[in-house]
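hey so i finally got around to running the thing on that chain from the lab meeting. sorry it took forever, my laptop kept dying and i had to restart like 3 times. anyway pasting the input first so we r on the same page abt which one it is
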Amino acid sequence: MIQERALPKFDTATVQITKETGLLLYEDMILGRFFEDKCAEMYYRGKMFGFVHLYNGQEAVSSGVIKAMRPGEDFVSSTYRDHVHALSAGVPAREVMAELFGKATGCSKGRGGSMHMFSAEHRLLGGYAFVAEGIPVAAGAAFQSKYRREVLGDPNADQVTACFFGDGAANNGQFFETLNMAALWKLPIIFVVENNKWAIGMAHDRATSDPEIYKKASVFNMVGVEVDGMDVLAVHSVAQEAVARARAGEGPTLIEALTYRFRGHSLADPDELRSKAEKEFWFSRDPIKKLAAYLIEQKLADEAELKAIENKIQALIDDAVKFAESSPEPDPSELYRFIFAEDE
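ok and heres what got predicted. didnt touch it at all, straight out
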């Protein structure tokens, strides 16, 4: 097993969250976990096709960052592991599931599938199949916010963009080029590296000259933060600080969240490269169980309340599947729609 990197310590005593925030984060993580579990079931039952990359284990990163932002106002750029980012951003479970089923009622009209979730309404800039492809797109969204505010004089243009990508993308040229531009222009953007230790089948420690990605921020005179990506309270705390910096015009932040995917790279991956000992090390740090224990310990919730949330989400997921199954296929006559710009 590759040497495990020590997770950053986070003192929960220094964070005071309300019951409302605690339950919001818990519900969002449960939504992500239950949705992905249902995706696996539907995939193996032949309801979904192509590559499907699940997010199980990484929920604290999506919930912690996106729930520190303004829903429907701030922008989110994702990767090919994008279902849960879409859900956290507010895209209805029905629309995400329908997209996975390739139906016309999906958030990308059935044309994107698993890797290309998009919703203009929810400011979801898209899922991107190519590694690091979304990083410059996110910088463009951040640039237009800054331009509209500082050049066009729009006082309401204070949106922040969160750009998610994996550890493998941090070795890509687009990562370095975009961080440089973001720092030079002080863009209101948060770069979130979801370091789950594996870029498909390549162990992160074997693929980069310095495995501590957050330290690369210093090269660009940018704030770099390392956080335990299995602790939603820790992620939420550093995300709130990064959002505040960006909104105040103080520029970008690079957050490296140390996390782990509980399933293989995709549902077609037999997951034989990772050792049993490594998986067990991370399974024991399940972010949902960790938050549940904290909420009960702090008397912010009891087991009955948490169970009620789980039942509510399960019903939501079941409804999403029924909606997807009963939705129409895209009409063949619209095959070429959304390829070229259309007149209003």
